[in-house]
């Protein structure tokens, strides 16, 4: 299983519209991508400007398909100016 985490730091004036758009992106990814298995959107209760994603995909190829999807490209174009910082980490989930 291929795992992606993303930590966003959002401009304060843009946080509410970012959260709405991020939830739509999560729904789109889960509904439109057969190999996107999980897309959790998390908010830091101590800092409203931080949004954290936990996503799982069947493999790296599935994530690459995600990055090239119409819905992701539209999302990215829309929110880029709202984001102060974005840290992406790629991981492999270990079997138990």
How would you briefly describe this protein structure?
With 96 residues, this protein is an alpha+beta fold.
Question: Could you characterize the architecture of this molecule?
Answer:
With 96 residues, the protein is of the alpha+beta class. The chain has a single domain (2-91), classed as Alpha-Beta Plaits (2-Layer Sandwich). Helices cover 38% and strands 36% of the residues. The chain has three helices and four strands, in the order E-H-E-E-H-H-E. The protein has helices at residues 15-32, 60-67, 70-79, and strands spanning 2-10, 36-43, 50-57, 83-92. A four-stranded antiparallel sheet has the order 2-3-1-4. A hairpin with a 6-residue loop joins strand 2 (36-43) and strand 3 (50-57). The radius of gyration is 13 Å and the shape is globular. The relative contact order is 0.32.
Overall form? globular
State the end-to-end distance: 12 Å
What is the mean pLDDT? 96
Low-confidence stretches: none
Number of helices: 3
Q: Kindly give the count of domains.
A: 1
Largest sheet: 4 strands, antiparallel
Strand numbers in spatial order across the main sheet: 2-3-1-4
- What is the N-to-C succession of helices and strands? EHEEHHE
- CATH class group: Alpha Beta
Output the radius of gyration.
Answer: 13 Å
| Estimated share of beta-strand residues | 35-45%
- Give the fraction of residues assigned to helices: 25-40%
According to DSSP, the number of beta strands is 4
Helix/strand class: alpha+beta
Looking at CATH, which topology would you report? Alpha-Beta Plaits
């Amino acid at each position: 299983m291929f795992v992606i985490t993303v930590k966003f730091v959002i401009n304060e004036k843009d946080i509410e519209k970012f959260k709405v758009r991020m939830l739509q992106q999560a729904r789109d990814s889960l509904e439109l991508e057969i190999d996107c298995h999980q897309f959790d959107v998390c908010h830091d209760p101590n800092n409203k400007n931080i949004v954290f994603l936990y996503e799982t995909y069947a493999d790296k190829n599935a994530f690459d398909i995600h990055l090239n999807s119409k819905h992701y490209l539209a999302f990215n174009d829309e929110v880029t100016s709202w984001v102060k910082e974005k840290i992406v980490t790629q991981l492999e989930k270990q079997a138990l």
